[in-house]
Amino acid sequence: MFMGEYRHNVDEKGRMIIPAKFREGLGQSFVVTRGLDKCLFVYPHEEWTKLEEQLKTLPFTKKDARAFTRFFFSGASECELDKQGRVNLASPLRQYAQIEKECVVIGVSNRVEVWSQSMWEHYVGESEESLAEISENLMDFDL
Asked: Locate the SpoVT-AbrB domain: which residues (predicted)?
């Protein structure tokens, strides 16, 4: 399980340190793709395979299913850690998430998310304002 929040920088070559606490769970190679809310989703291969199987069950005759599947898979990239625990984030992924230098790496249960620091701070600010309403909407899930 991934959890926690870490702040890092992306260097001029697009490399970013993966927090040491996440490296074992991700393994030597993993998948990075465009996520929701303008962040990047990072999946260990086992979780990526599970997600891939779920997405395969979506009806390709539905426009929304095709659009989501295209969005998710076309942005995916297999990545590997270098000897210093860094990953090279592809330029299109960095552009999508608006990551230039400062970023935030967070653990979200079965995946890791990478955010530009400014987008993360904006997201947290907005979410804090509506957290009570969000938690009420999730009451049906016995949280």
From this structure: 5-47, 76-119
Contact assessment for residue 98 and residue 119, using Cβ atoms and an 8 Å cutoff:
yes
Whole-angstrom Cα distance, residue 139 to residue 134? Answer: 9
Instruction: Write the CB contacts of 66 (distance below 8 Å, at least 6 apart in sequence).
Output: 60
Contact 56, 62 (CB under 8 A): no
Amino acid code (one letter) for 135: S
**Contacts of 59 by beta carbon, 8 Å cutoff, 6+ apart:** 65
Task: Quote the CA–CA distance of 19 and 9 in Å, as a whole number.
Answer: 12
pTM value is: 0.93
Q: In this model, does residue 141 exceed pLDDT 90?
A: no
pLDDT digits (tens, 9 = 90+) for 63-107: 999 999 999 999 999 999 999 999 999 999 999 999 999 999 999
Structure tokens given for 126? 């907005």
DSSP-assigned letters across all residues of 47-101: HHHHHHHHHHTS-TTSHHHHHHHHHHHHT-EEEE--TTSEEE--HHHHHHHT-SS
Question: Residue 126 carries which DSSP code?
Answer: H
Whether 46 shows a pLDDT value over 80: the answer reads: yes
